[in-house]
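Progress note, sequence design subtask.
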């Protein structure tokens, strides 16, 4: 879920460019990097652990989703990474997975605060459990940063799921985000991803800087379908 928000703000204090982001993974870390136009610089490393929980007990249909991600900047505005996630109890829509991905920021005009990025992530079940599905997400986003509004940023884009079984819901959708810095160590974000699928959520939340290299995010996700499809989300991020 919430990638680089205060990490990059801290880099600004060192005289480097800060690009503020809206990042929510919508219940799986493999989606995190698909909702922004940001990429890691060459040699930079990002590590994240995250947790989502339903408000219901297991007996009443509730579940938890655990995830993590490692990303590395390989140069020329390109980053690669691998994610992992699993649910408890196991659901076919959220099987234990590894999620390798690549992302390229193909356009950036710093003077005007405009950027664009494209990427791909594969969602690969680690065991051939009955009813699971392997597929690939292709995505693209554009963003605009507004300097007079404390570097507030809006992001919009879309995604498509290749080889995804239609029984698991929508195979395409849109991304919308807004991120508003409040103080040097706190930012408010809203992320909405359309689609009646595992990625379709509306999530407001707060990101707090803990140290120069780490931050914590807390938010609440509301699904696009099913009345009881909602719950809190937490993520811890480390960047170097």
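Output:
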């Amino acid at each position: 879920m919430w990638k680089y928000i205060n990490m990059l703000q801290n880099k600004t204090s060192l005289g480097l460019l800060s690009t503020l982001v809206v990042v929510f993974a919508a219940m799986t870390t493999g989606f995190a990097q698909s909702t922004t136009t940001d990429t890691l610089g060459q040699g930079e490393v990002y590590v994240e652990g995250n947790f989502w929980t339903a408000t219901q007990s297991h007996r009443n249909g509730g579940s938890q989703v655990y995830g993590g991600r490692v990303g590395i900047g390989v140069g020329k505005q390109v980053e690669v990474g691998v994610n992992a996630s699993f649910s408890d109890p196991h659901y076919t829509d959220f099987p234990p997975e590894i999620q390798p991905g690549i992302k390229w920021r193909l356009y950036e005009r710093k003077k005007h605060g405009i950027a664009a990025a494209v990427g791909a992530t594969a969602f690969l079940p680690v065991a051939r459990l009955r009813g699971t599905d392997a597929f690939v997400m292709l995505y693209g986003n554009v963003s605009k940063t507004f300097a007079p509004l404390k570097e507030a940023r809006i992001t919009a884009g879309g995604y498509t799921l290749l080889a995804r079984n239609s029984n698991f819901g929508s195979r395409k959708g849109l991304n919308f985000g807004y991120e508003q810095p409040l103080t040097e160590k706190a930012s408010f974000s809203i992320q909405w991803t359309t689609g009646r699928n595992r990625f379709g959520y509306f999530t407001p939340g707060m990101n707090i800087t803990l140290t120069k290299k780490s931050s914590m995010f807390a938010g609440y996700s509301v699904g696009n379908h099913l009345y009881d499809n909602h719950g809190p989300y937490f993520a811890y991020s480390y960047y170097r």
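The domain at 5-239 is CATH 2.40.160.40 (Porin). Work on this subtask will continue into the next period as scheduled.
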